[in-house]
Amino acid sequence: MFSSRLNWSQRPNRLSALLEEKRRSGTPVLDLTESNPTQVGLVYPQAEILSALADASALNYHPSPRGLHSTREAVAGYYRDRGAQVDPEHVLLTASTSEAYAYLFKLLANPGDEILAPRPSYPLFEFLAGLESVNIRQYPLRYDGVWHVDFDALEQAITPRTRGIVVVNPNNPTGSFLKRSELDVLDALAAKHGLAILSDEVFRDYAFGEEADRVSTLAGERKALTFCMSGLSKIAGLPQMKLGWVALNGPDRQQAMDALELIADTYLSVSTPVQVALPRLLALSGSILNQIRERTSSNLGRLREAIHDSAATLLRTEGGWYAALQVPRTRSEEEWTLKLLGELDVLVQPGFFFDFESEAFLVLSLLPEPATFADGVSRLLQVAAART
Questions:
Q1: Residue-wise over 107-146: b if at least 16 C-beta within 10 A, else e?
Q2: What is residue 40's predicted lDDT score, i.e. its pLDDT?
Q3: Which end of the chain has fewer CB atoms within 10 angstroms, the N or the C?
Q4: Percent of the chain surpassing pLDDT 70
């Protein structure tokens, strides 16, 4: 009696079943998958955040499909502070980046149409697209000491039903940014085929060092219609506030904006209190963002030092909250994760969760508290050293 869009297996995989068993028994687990910034010991300016949410003007409801103008101005200011120009009239507020994807899939694609998404990357696109009866086709990112887009494979993946290309910048979990030469090719390719670019930029503020040819945002003049997405979840470490946005640029952006406004008007999902609070939350975000930067950078440094002369190899990462390790193929990725959790109480993610094309890769979050991270990595490397 239910929609075929929900035909996803709800059977627990072996790793999640083992984790549940560990938690039921009360066994402490070193969780190297933790991605919730509110759970890793960061110091939040609590009084200031609560004060921002206590603004009495939030008691008045003025429904606006695009979002409050003052809030969209604050979003434009966020880009301006980072050297990019965004018109607040071409910003649409959403409850999350996931909702932004849903709106964009509705805007661009009819049932059965296709969106191209990178591989490896975050395993959410298929689910979001499936709820819109849209298909995901993957294009590969290649690694030869650095990550790069395989543009030949990307163009070969384009069909008459392709409507858009997703880029995640920096990508999760590879931590790779687009380079300027890649953006030029991507922009021209999308324009040539009449495709939109959907740029997920939630981790853009978490770069490890500076590189001159790195693209931090696709906001700005483009040949192809481009949608830049971000929100409070990552840039302010506030996933519970549920506010994201889409910034539009490129040709036909006004027509796209009008259509998105119609979609948003159907839902009116973004709450007024968080919209009113956004300017102050962005102003407060610096201390949280800096703590996350320090945490991810220091954990990355610990990881580099720990794996030196070990059997594991750290793939180059340029930013974000994650690191990918290549480990010996003495067992499958599933066996790696089950052994680590079952015998050493360490939780990591297998590469196949992110569609790595070969084995064996493990993905670690760089957010956990330093002692937890160091202990978990030490135990992981014990298994790598054993080779059996």
A1: bbbeeebbbbbbbbbbeebeebbbebebbbbbbbbebeee
A2: 98
A3: N
A4: 99
Residue with tokens 């009449």: 194
> Residue 205 pLDDT more than 70?
yes
Dihedral of the alpha carbons of 230, 243, 209, 313, in degrees to the nearest 10? -80
> Beta strands of 201-332 (E only): which ranges?
226-231, 244-249, 313-314, 322-326
Cβ 271 vs Cβ 242: under 8 Å: yes
pTM confidence score: 0.96
The whole-angstrom separation of Cα 92 and Cα 254 is 12
Q: Domain 13-43+285-386 is classified in which CATH homologous superfamily?
A: Aspartate Aminotransferase, domain 1 (3.90.1150.10)
Containing H/E element for 388?
Answer: none
- pLDDT greater than 70 at residue 387: no
* Per-residue CA distances from 58 to 53, 73, 92, 279 (Å): 8, 17, 19, 13
State which CATH number among 3.10.350.10, 3.50.50.60, 3.40.390.10, 3.40.640.10 fits the domain covering 60-284: 3.40.640.10
pLDDT score at 352: 97
Can you tell me whether residue 97 is helix, strand or coil? helix
pLDDT of 386 > 90? The answer is no
CA distances from 351 to 8, 315, 325 (A): 20, 12, 9
Cβ pair 70, 279 in contact under 8 A = yes
Residue 2 above 90 pLDDT?
A: no
